[in-house]
Design brief:
This protein is an all-alpha fold. It contains 15 helices and no strands. Helix 3 crosses helix 15, helix 5 packs across helix 9 and helix 14 packs antiparallel against helix 15. The chain is globular. The termini are far apart.
Length: 313
């Protein structure tokens, strides 16, 4: 009777690289395509109506395309961008855009929205209803309607001067002497509701135990706001600043209705300058180059805010 000797199993030597190579599962590519199939209509729409126009505008910015008096356009390279940075009107529009954005978005809407949200946390229900209704009404108004309302408020025979005359204070033509401040105030009046809603939601998420403990320890309202509230809603602040800034950079109708960028370009921001060059002076290539520069400015703001949001509290 013979006894069979057991055969030792063959052991594959380890991979010298130390990494395991896994073979792709069967049908993995097919499953991925099937899962991505419902997203294909949205992807096609994004390519056609977002990526396509942006790419075409980027091409036009490097040409001398005009609306009238031109049979064919030619490629001019960076001439439009060089002309922009040598144009005093463009540099003035850049400066006014930054002033308008800082005053109406970073300072005005953000600060006033946070203050209203904090005050409404302690207000009674009737007060919250009335104040919230008034602020949100200004937000839902169309931009053109809001522009006409604020034009009637700031014009020389408008409501503001009537109030100043009643108080025996000096009045002036605000749309002529301080047009950038007038349109900045108009944008604050119209857009504060969004910041108020964002900060109201953020403040409601702060645990009451933390604020109550701070009150017991003797921390006043300003110290609680600075050391507790603001650090805990910092992500909401960053998100609100980013959305408000991008919206403010593209404001056109409000300023156009109130001042049309005047007088003498004193309230002409980049969107109005772009419109003037592209459609009033028929220089589509130059106007599109300005639009790309405005897109770059918005992208820089977005990068700063995204880095702010990624930072841990």
């Amino acid at each position: 009777m013979s006894v069979s000797t057991p055969v030792a199993p063959q052991i594959r030597p380890p991979d010298p690289s130390g990494t395991k190579v896994a073979s792709p599962p069967r049908g993995g590519l097919r499953r991925s395509l099937v899962r991505a199939l419902p997203l294909s209509p949205a992807l096609i729409l994004l390519v056609l109506f977002l990526a396509g126009p942006i790419g075409y505008c980027a091409y036009i910015a490097f040409t001398d395309l005009q609306l009238t008096g031109q049979a064919h356009s030619s490629f001019v390279g960076f001439d439009n961008f060089r002309a922009a940075f040598q144009d005093d009107a463009f540099l003035n529009a850049v400066w006014l855009t930054l002033v308008f954005t800082v005053l109406s978005s970073l300072v005005g809407q953000n600060t006033l929205g946070l203050a209203l949200a904090a005050l409404m946390q302690r207000a009674s229900k009737p007060v919250r209803t009335v104040v919230g209704g008034i602020v949100i009404t200004a937000w839902v108004l169309p931009e053109v309607v809001a522009g006409f309302l604020l034009y009637a408020f700031f014009r020389q025979e408008g409501t503001l001067n009537a109030i100043l005359d009643w108080l025996h204070l000096p009045s002036q033509n605000w749309l002529f002497t301080l047009p950038i401040l007038a349109v900045s105030f108009a944008n604050v009046w119209r857009g504060t509701a969004f910041s108020m809603l964002v900060y109201s939601a953020a403040l409601n998420e702060i645990p009451k135990e933390i604020t109550e403990a701070a009150e017991v320890d003797g921390a006043g309202g300003w110290r609680r706001m600075w050391h507790i509230t603001l650090p805990m809603i910092r992500r909401s602040i960053g998100t609100n600043l980013m959305l408000n800034t991008l919206q403010t950079l593209s404001v056109f109708g409000l300023i156009w209705v109130m001042t049309r960028g005047g007088p003498s370009g004193k309230s002409q921001t980049l969107p109005l300058f772009m419109y003037e060059q592209a459609f009033q002076k028929s220089m589509i290539g130059y106007g599109t180059a300005v639009a790309l520069l405005l897109l770059v400015v918005g992208s820089l703001f977005s990068v700063v805010y995204m880095r702010l949001l990624r930072t841990e509290v």
